Known about the structure:
The chain has helices at residues 5-29, 31-41, 57-86. By secondary structure, it is mainly α. It has one domain (5-43, 54-86). Helix 1 (5-29) packs across helix 2 (31-41) and helix 1 (5-29) packs antiparallel against helix 3. The longest helix has 30 residues, at 57-86. The radius of gyration is 17 Å and the shape is elongated.
Amino acid sequence: xxxxxxxxxxxxxxxxxxxxxxxxxxxxxxxxxxxxxxxxxxxxxxxxxxxxxxxxxxxxxxxxxxxxxxxxxxxxxxxxxxxxxxxx
Length: 88
């Protein structure tokens, strides 16, 4: 079975879209816990006030779109390197 670069890139995009929607829902439903988790994941970054989440439709759409583009590129590069090393 040969894995195509675009197949991997598309799989990354679908995974990213799903994760983005679930993460946004989590932030919307549990903003305080989301701030705590974000602080933990960012190596203890102090996110105390005035920092807060401001989840709006534009943030959701632009953030999701840029994340999808980034992961499509990452998926393509991953697919290219996979093919490169699979030939050896």
